[in-house]
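Q: Could you fold this chain for me?
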Amino acid sequence: MKVTKKKIEAILQQDERMKWVTLWYDRAAKQWIFTGGDSVMWESSGTGVFRLDMLSVEEWVDYAYQLAGRERNE
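A: Sure. Below is the predicted structure, expressed as structure tokens.
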């Protein structure tokens, strides 16, 4: 399965707590970051991942929950 920003965000948007979180590529930092929602309250929203295909869609979603300090309810 091809990893896309749209697929990752679609899964996150199914959870009311993560509904407004989006994934964005920061060219200056050369990494993908999570923005929006309460991501400004997270300890870090930077992923350290510079290519989407370095993680699966499910790993991206799990990573967002980890950064948010939340449990994922599937």
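A (continued): Strands lie at 22-26, 31-35.
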